[in-house]
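Exam revision sheet. Question 4 asks you to relate a sequence to its structure. Input first:
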Amino acid sequence: MSMHADSVRILAARLGVPEAQVEAALSLEGLSLGPEHTQATTASRATLAPTAPPIVEESSGATEAPSSALSGLLGDRYRDLGPLGVGGMGEVRRVYDRQLRRVVAMKTLRTNLLENPAAVSRFIEEAEITAQLQHPGIIPIHDRGVLPDGRVWFTMREIEGRSFFEAIRDHHRAVDDNVEVATRRRRRLIESLHRVCAAVSHAHERGVVHRDLKPENIMMGQQGEILVVDWGLARVGRSEPEASSPSTVDSTRSARQAFLTQMGQVAGTPAYMSPEQADGALDQIGTTSDVYSLGVILYVILRGRTPFRGSDQDELLELVRGGAGHDVWESLVQVGTKEARGRAMTKPVVPTGLVEICRRAMQRKPADRFACAGALGEAIQAWLDGAQQRAEAVELVERALQQVSRIEALQQDARRLRRTAREGLVGLSPWAPVHVKAPLWDMEDRAARADAQASLLALEKEMLLHSSLTRVASLPVAHAALAALYHSVHQQTERRRKGSARVEALLRRHALALPREHPDRTRFLAYLDGRGRLSLRTDPPGATVQVYRYTEVERNMVPRDLGVLGVTPLERIVLDAGSYLCVVTCPGFVPVHYPLHIARQAHWTGGLPGMEHPPPLLLLDAETLGSGARYVPAGPMLLGDHRGVPPELADRSVWVDGFVIQTTPVTNAQYLEFLNDPSVDGDRWVPQERPNPRGEPGSRLLPRDIDGRFELAVDPDGDEWRPAMPVVYVDYAAACAYAQWLSRRSGQSWRLPTEIEWRKACQGVDGRPYPWGWVAEPTRAQNLLSGPPRQVLTDVGTFPDDCSPYGVLDMGGNCQEWTLDSEVDCRRRIADRRALVPRLDAGTSRLVCGASWTQALDAHVRNAPHQQPLTGRSGGLGFRLVRSVPA
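Answer key, C-alpha cells:
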C-alpha cells in the first residue's frame, strides 16, 4: 500500500467520503488539480511563489502563522523543539529523534492543504524524490509518516547556516576598501554555484528537474556544505515501477497522470523561471529549464539583482517569455566599470568569461543553452580554473610590485652613503691617516652592499613577473609591469649609449601583448616609435631654421643637413628622437648654432620640463657678439655622466644662462698684449714654471727683448713658443688679471667660466663627454696619444674635429683650463635646477676642465674637473674667458 494512498484515505475519512468512492477514485487517473496549488494557470496566477525581490533589498511579505506545537502528535519517537520556518506548502520544525538520539528537521504539510489531494501528492513526492537523490549537495531524508491529524511529514537533516540569498545579498551590500576583497568574495559565491550545479546535475542524470531553483532554495551550512533544498516542484520523467532502474528516480505522483502538471499551467518563481516555464509549455521543460534558472542565479551573483523586474507578475512573466535582451547584458557588462563607479565604487568588473557563460545559460531557446547542469558546471569549473591561475598570477605580480619600494629605499640609502663618503674623502688630503678614512670607506662598502641587494631584489621582481606569465600568458597587469620595467631600463641604456636593442625588443613584446585599449600599450608603443616635438621661438621672430641631425660617422657625431624647418615661431614640429643642430639665421644678426636633444615622446621648448613660458632664443648682432667668440644661448643641458656629477643628476637637465665664450683659449699673442700694456705689472703675471723643491721660483718662459717688452722664445727643451699656442704656466690670479684687463679695454665684462658653462660650451646639451661625440678617439684632439712620441703643445685650431656644437675650438685637448668654481660636486653649484655663477672668494683652489697634451684623452672624463691650487701652474694649463648675455 503506497504512502500516497494512505494520505488520500486519511483525507477522505476526514471529509466523510465513502470508502468505496475513495477506492474507485484511486483506481482512476481523473483527479484534477485545485486552483490553490502553487502552479499557475491563466485564472490562477496569484498562487505563484512571490516575485523575487532585488537581492540587495530585504525580502518581505507576511506568511501564514506556524501551526501549534506538535508535541501531542509526535508519539514516543520525536520531541518538538520549536519552529524553524514556514514555506508555501509546509512548516518545518526542529525535533529530537529519541530513537537515534539526534536533532532533525521535520517538515509537515500545512493544515490548509490537507483537503488538496494534489498538494498532498506533491508533498509526498518531494520526500520520495529527495530521498532517492543521494548526493552531498542534496539534503538527506531520514523518515516519513502521517500525523494523527492527517498531516503528512518527513524528517531530514537540520541545516545550520544561511541561505544563498543572504550570502549574495551580503556580498552586494558590503562596503570594501578595495576591489580585490569583493573579487575574492565573488569567487567564493561562484565556487558555491559550481557545487550547486553538481547537485542539480546528479538530479538531471536521474531524470529529475527541480523547476524552482533560486538562491532561497540553496542553503549554506556552517560546515561549508552547499545544499539544494525544496524539491516540491520537481518533475520526474515517467517510468513504470517494474521497469525502473536503480539510477532512475521514481515517485507515486509521477506514476499517475492525474497528478501531473497539465499543459498551460505555470509552476515556479517567475523571476528565476525559464521562458518555457513562463509559457506553461510542459513538453519543453527539461534539464535546460534548470540550466536557465542557474544562469539567472549567476546573473544575480554578478549583478546584484534579477535580470527582469515587472510591476506585477503578469508583466514579469511577459518579460521572461521575451528572453534576455541587449539591455540585460549591457547592464551586466557595466558592473564595476568607470561609468558605474558613482553607484558602486568597489564592485569588481564582471569577467567576460562569466558573462558569456551566463548569456548561454539564459538563451531563450532551450536548445541554445547548456544541455544540463553538468555542462554548465564544467564551464564554470573551467572559468574557475582559469581564475585560480589568474589569481595566482596576480598574486605573483603583487609580490613583484611590493619589491619596488624596497628597491627604491635601498638605492636611496646607497646614494646617500656614497654621497656622504665622497664629500668626506674629497675634503681629505691624500696623506690623511687611515683611521680617518676608514669610516668613509665603510660607508662606500655599505653603499655597495645596498646596491647589490637592490639589484637582487630587482632580479627577483623581474623573475616573479615572468613567473606570473607562465600561469596566465596574457595577463595585462604582468605585461604592463614588465613593459614599465623595460621602459625604465631602456631609457637608462639609451642615455648611457649602451646596447639597448635587446631591451627594446622586450619592451615591444610586452607592450604588444597588452589589450589594444590598454593605455600603457599606446604609451609604450608611442615611446618605441621614437619621436618627439620641437617648438622654437626667437627674439626677434621671423628667423629661418636650418636643421641638421647628428649621425655617428667613424666615432664622430657629424651633422647631416635635413633642410629648412621653417621660420620662427615653430610649433610642435615632429622629429625623430635624437640630437640635432639648428642653425638659426636672421638678417642683421649673426647665425646662431643651437643644439638640441629630442627625447622619445618629449617636447623640446627651449625650457626646463614644466617651464610654462620658456624665454625665446635671443639673437645677437655682430657688434654684441664681437670677434673671436661664439654664442652659447640660454637653455637646458643634460649634465651627463662626468666626474663631479652625482648619479642622480646625470640624466637631469639644468638651466644655463646664455653667455659668449672665446672661440679658443687665450693665446700667447693675446697674452703678450696684456703683459706689454704699460698699465700692467708684467713681471707679476708673466708665465713661469712652478717653484723647484727648494722653494726657488720657476724660470720665466717669456723673456724681455732689448726694448724691455716680453717676447716669445725657445724654451730650455728646444721647443718654440709660437703666437698661436695657448698661453700656459699661468696661475688663477694671472687668468683673473687678464680678464679684468680685457674688460677695461673692451668695455665688456669678461670673466672665467663656471665649470657648467665650460662643459655646456664643450659638449652642447645632450650629455656627450667630448666636443665631437661619445668616444675618446685620440686623433680628434691634441693629447698624449694623438701621435708618435713626443707630443707638445700645438697651435689653437690644429684639430678641426675638436670643435663643439657651438663652434668652440680646442675644448677636448691641448690644454686644460681654469674655471671660477672650487667645488667638485656640482650640487652646490645648482639651485632650483639652475647653474649658479659663484661669488669670488679667497679659497685655496679652483676647478680645471678638459684634457691636455700631457694626458691621455680619457682624462677629459676621468680626471676633470679636478681641483688645482690657486698658485698652480703647468705646461698644460691655460684659460679662456666668457661674458654673460643679459636675458
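Marking note for examiners. DSSP finds 22 helices and 30 strands in the chain.
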